[in-house]
Amino acid sequence: MKIENSTVVTEFILLGLTQSQNIQLLVFVLILIFYLIILPGNFLIILTIRSDPGLTAPLYFFLGNLAFLDASYSFIVAPRMLVDFLSDKKVISYRGCITQLFFLHFLGGGEGLLLVVMAFDRYIAICRPLHYVTVMNPRTCYALLLVLWLGGFVHSIIQVALILRLPFCGPNRLDNFFCDVPQVIKLACTDTFVVELLMVFNSGLLTLLCFLGLLASYAVILCRVSGSASEGKSKALSTCTTHVIIILLMFGPAIFIYTRPFTALSADKVVSFFHTVIFPLMNPVIYTLHNQEVKASMRRILSRHVFF
Questions:
Q1: What's phi and psi for 129, nearest 5 deg?
Q2: Which residues, 6+ apart, have CB-to-CB distance to 30 below 8 Å?
Q3: pTM score above 0.85
Q4: What digits encode the pLDDT tens for the residues 151-178?
Q5: Burial class (CB in 10 A: 0-12, 13-18, 19+), 216
Q6: What digits encode the pLDDT tens for the residues 253-277?
Q7: I need a surface site. Which of 27, 60, 229, 244 has the fewest CB within 10 A?
Q8: Between vectors from CA 77 to CA 74 and to CA 184, what angle results, nearest 5°?
Q9: Residue 11 DSSP symbol
Q10: Exposed / middle / buried, residue 252 (Cβ in 10 Å: 0-12, 13-18, 19+)
Q11: Torsion, Cα of 48, 57, 109, 275 (10° steps)
């Protein structure tokens, strides 16, 4: 049963979010409600932006991609978590664990970079409005989209490459409800100090720097908007405030998880639960609730389909 790189562990036993049956039932119902209500809402956002010729601005192009990334991200952990709630033994194969970890950081890294791109878009729109059409042309938008996908891939492949070099010879009990870097590394049969430092640098430091950079950029934008007397002031303030909320939801838990040494804390599972399951479904919806154009277009689409 021996696998490459001296790995003899062929599966991991997930200890789950909690051992309490009542809490498991509550979480199961909560996730199911989110999936049945909010996930279709994310796909409706994508459909609305794709079908409405009035929503062709870069802002809506990136919002559609945010909805797609978050919807995809939600499929990495939540479906398996729902199945595990109904299973007595929660097991994931070694290769399945590595695959889950890869897509978790691939899409998560891509979304983090997408929020940076959206901040750049708002900066140009508000602080350099005369250059906006020239700078944020379709070619630039697609180039930025390619960069963020490549950036997410590079970030994730580094994580996976470092873990694949580690030997796993037992134990195989993973103290989480999904596979992530901090818990998997702790099961390696070797000293992982250097690997942990590299992981903190690859995930934690980059996350923190992006977060601080985003907050600084939106602080500049908000100061610029507050000092202006233009007609679109309230709309710009609403858009930027919503972006800041999404940034806090996205980067707050990630900073808590990845910027400290990989030692277990009692809050880790709860933070991971909101970071991987709840917040990804909420992000596009939060943004849409503050965008009148998208809401109006969604109403037209819904009324047209209901009417027919």
A1: -60, -30
A2: none
A3: yes
A4: 999 999 999 999 999 999 878 999 889 9
A5: exposed
A6: 999 988 877 777 778 888 998 888 8
A7: 229
A8: 135
A9: E
A10: middle
A11: -50
